[in-house]
Amino acid sequence: MPAFDHKTLRTKVASAAASLSDNAIAPTLVAAAVGAGGAQLTAHGALSVETGAFTGRSPKDKFIVRDALTSDRVWWDNSGALAPEQFDLLMADIEQHLAGQPLFRQDLLAGADPQFQYDVTVLTPSAWHALFIRNLLIRRDDGIPASDDATPVTILHAPLFQADPARHGSRTDTVIALDMSRNIVLIAGTRYAGEIKKSVFSLFNFHAPEQGVLPMHCSANLGPDGEAALFFGLSGTGKTTLSNDPARPLIGDDEHGWSPSGVFNLEGGCYAKTVNLSAEAEPEIHAATQRFGTVLENVVLDVNNMPAFSDVTRTENTRAAYSIDVLPSIARGSVGKTPKTVVFLTADAFGVLPPLARLSPNQAVYHFLSGYTAKVAGTERGVTEPQATFSACFGAPFMPLHPTVYGEMLAKRLAESGAQAWLLNTGWIGGAYGTGKRIDIASTRRLLTAALNGELDHVDMRFDPLFGFEVPMNVPGVDDRLLDPRQCWADGEAYDIQAAKLVGLFRKNFEKFGPEADADAGPRLQMAAE
């Protein structure tokens, strides 16, 4: 198949616009967003916007074109399928919808390693969405080397266009459609900006394994010798918070590639959750929310136009999108050497998992494929106890290939690098949510530091009979009792019942990978009574 002519598509869409703002910088985009209505400046100068009915992603409305390239490779259990002609009809209708409107074009890069780089053009009628993606991807003046051979990607963003399921093959009037063969993305019917950045990640996740690169939904920072540490975790587990460490330069916040030569950031910005954000607990992120050019999504403002980060009237998924270079400590070039440490974060609301556990390579792959955390009771009507959440590879909605493809790549990378893997629980201790208490951030940071700097290489470990991993017996600066969850419960038998329940949930979730995957990926979880 000949290469698709992205230049012609981009030129056609841009030339049909009523006007074109080409690669405008933050002041221009902020002025346009405020002038268009629906956006306002906070007291500190950040841009506050609302996303309307959609305050998060719409994974059930994501579709991939089923063609010769994707038919036998895509994990169709995780993605809807569109016929090529349906995609083309949708694209033609979106082009017609955008014609005659003022458009904002941003030409950006994805991938700090030029060898695996994408040349991304986003065309949108929304100034604040243009600012958002300008913050989140790599700008061409960022000092990141640009490749002449970067893979072209074109994203047509039409937040007010309504798809027709009968005509376009969509599920609803909202659609996120990806053509992997031509690297075209169509986004319609949603103003939630995260769909734009995640579509780039989805493309990368599909193509990267063929290039020998493991795509990862994780944050990453640098140790003293330039080696990377990786932080995998679902929303609310502390991925952004814990990777932001003044003593360890940040490579990136959310999306990375692990090549044979090291780790590189896919993005040029951060998309941080802001619910209950405070200057005391997260000073770097809090400071970023006060900068001109930062986009605050669905954050409630008080009467003085100050962000009220504890107000979840609109959603708990409030966000700040800002350029990574506003942070005080970042890695030069957004790259790092081969990782020495891999951390899997979870917020266990069942009160079962220890705050820290050392994983064997097989156990690391098992927990990578499981992607566990838990929702707390009370966040949804009718939810009276914690609910387990499993997301394969800690990012199932963005993984177009079967999870075992990425699991096998992780196993290979761990074997080649000798990196040590850890499970870090930032959730509850002494009981489940509502009875126990959340592990304090100071203890979590102390445990993480000990794992990163090698303090735990030769300490005494106990074998956990439920999960098979090793748990340190003593970590300076941390109460020894905290390291053994059962001891923290007032009723040991109640802990055993809760632990058995969680083990069963892990087992049930892993059934989808089949018995062979279970045996290869990690130990079968054993009940203490067995």
Q: Biggest sheet, open or closed, and with what strands and sense? A: 8 strands, mixed
Q: Give the strand tally.
A: 27
In the sheet with the most strands, the strands line up as 1-6-7-8-10-9-4-5
CATH architecture of the domain at 334-384 and 411-507: Alpha-Beta Complex
Using the coordinates shown, work out and report the CATH topology of the domain at 334-384 and 411-507: Phosphoenolpyruvate Carboxykinase, domain 3
Strand fraction: 15-25%
Shape descriptor reads globular
Query: Low-confidence stretches at least 5 residues in length (pLDDT < 50)?
Result: 377-383, 516-530
Structural class call reads alpha/beta
Backbone CA Rg: 23 Å
**How many helices?**
14
CATH class of the domain at 334-384 and 411-507: Alpha Beta
Please give the share of residues in helix: 25-40%
Q: Averaged pLDDT, please?
A: 93
Keywords: ATP-binding, Cytoplasm, Decarboxylase, Gluconeogenesis, Kinase, Lyase, Manganese, Metal-binding, Nucleotide-binding, Pyruvate, Transferase
Main location: cytoplasm
Function: Involved in the gluconeogenesis. Catalyzes the conversion of oxaloacetate (OAA) to phosphoenolpyruvate (PEP) through direct phosphoryl transfer between the nucleoside triphosphate and OAA.
Binding site for substrate: 57, 192, 198, 319
Topology:
Layout: H1 6-15, E1 19-22, H2 26-36, E2 39-41, E3 47-49, E4 62-65, E5 80-82, H3 84-98, E6 102-110, E7 118-124, H4 127-136, E8 151-158, H5 165-168, E9 175-179, E10 184-188, H6 194-207, E11 214-222, E12 227-232, H7 239-243, E13 250-252, E14 255-259, E15 262-265, E16 269-273, H8 283-288, E17 295-297, E18 319-323, E19 335-346, E20 356-359, H9 361-370, E21 372-375, E22 387-390, H10 403-417, E23 420-425, E24 428-429, E25 437-438, H11 441-452, E26 461-463, E27 470-472, H12 485-488, H13 492-510, H14 514-521
Parallel strand pairs: 1-6, 3-17, 4-5, 4-9, 7-8, 8-10, 12-19, 19-23
Antiparallel strand pairs: 2-3, 6-7, 9-10, 11-12, 11-13, 11-14, 14-15, 15-19, 16-18, 17-18, 20-23, 21-22, 24-25, 26-27
Helix pairs in contact: 2-4, 9-10
